[in-house]
Amino acid sequence: EEEREEELRRKLAEAKKKLTDKQREVVQYAFYENPNQTQAEMAKKMNCSQPMVHKHLDAALRNLRKGMGL
């Protein structure tokens, strides 16, 4: 179990390295800094529109899943 968790952490770290800067930024806001904030709030911080935040987040999640083999 512990080995599996370590392997998943390693895969996640490798997958995160392959994200674009904006994708990394939106993941940071959405999952680490303040998971309860809205996409509109993230858009203000990122100086872009809410639909663009949605696009970056969707792409980031797809890339992370792919990078982790999920």
Topology:
Elements: H1 2-17, H2 21-33, H3 39-46, H4 50-68
Helix pairs in contact: 1-4, 2-4, 3-4
Features:
single chain; 70 residues; mainly alpha; 0% strand
Number of helices: 4
Following the backbone from N to C, one meets helices and strands in this order, namely: HHHH
Secondary-structure-derived class = mainly alpha
Poorly predicted residue ranges: none
Query: Tell me, what's the shape?
Result: elongated
**Averaged pLDDT:** 94
The span between the termini is 18 Å
Describe the sheet with the most strands: none
CA-based gyration radius: 13 Å
Helix content class: over 70%
Overall number of strands: 0
Per DSSP, what share of the residues sits in E-state strands of 2 or more residues? under 5%
Describe it for me?
The structure is a single chain. The chain has 70 residues and is an all-alpha fold. 80% of the residues lie in helices and 0% in strands. The protein is built from 4 helices and no strands. It has helices spanning 2-17, 21-33, 39-46, 50-68. Helix 1 packs across helix 4, helix 2 crosses helix 4 (50-68) and helix 3 crosses helix 4.
Overview in brief:
The protein is mostly helical.
